[in-house]
Amino acid sequence: MNQSETYQKARGRAEAKYKFFIHAIVYGVVIGFLVLINLINWDGYFWAIWPMLGWGMAVALHAARVFLAADKDAIIDALTEDELNRS
Fold first, then answer.
1. Contact 37, 51 (CB under 8 A)
2. Mean pLDDT over all residues of the chain?
3. Which of 28, 37, 38, 54 has the maximum number of C-beta atoms within 10 A of its C-beta?
4. Hey, what's the torsion of the CAs at 40, 43, 44, 46, to 10 degrees?
5. Which of 18, 8, 10, 5 is closest to 70 using CA atoms?
6. b/e burial code for range 45-77 (CB count within 10 A of at least 16 → b)
7. Are 73 and 6 in contact (CB under 8 A)?
8. What gap in Å lies between CA 69 and CA 66, rounded to an integer?
9. Can you spell out the DSSP letters for 4-72?
10. Which pLDDT tens digit goes with each residue over 14-24?
11. How far apart are alpha carbons 85 and 37 in whole angstroms?
12. CB within 8 A of 65, min separation 6: which ones?
């Protein structure tokens, strides 16, 4: 793998992490406002839990894709290099 390809892969991973952080911040802000609205208009039912759980699952899946799948690529790249060196 040449330096340009290595840079492009690293940049792609960095962009994926940046997009996740933006997603997590937007989630926190919006859910915070929903909880605030729910508490201001309290009628005995905490309805904000539903968007919190639904969108929270999406954020969790996004995190898994960004942080766990990136490790898979590194492992596959290392195994590929090892196989190429054996040839």
1. no
2. 91
3. 38
4. -60
5. 10
6. eeebeeebeebeeebeebeeebeeeeeeeeeee
7. no
8. 6
9. HHHHHHHHHHHHHHHHHHHHHHHHHHHHHHHHHHHHHT-SS--TTHHHHHHHHHHHHHHHIIIIIHHHH
10. 999 999 999 99
11. 60
12. 16
State the distance between the two ends of the chain, measured CA to CA, in whole angstroms. Answer: 16
Question: What length does the chain have?
Answer: 87
pLDDT, mean of residues 34-44: 97
C-alpha–C-alpha distance, residues 62 and 1, integer Å: 28
Indicate the residue type of 67.
Answer: F
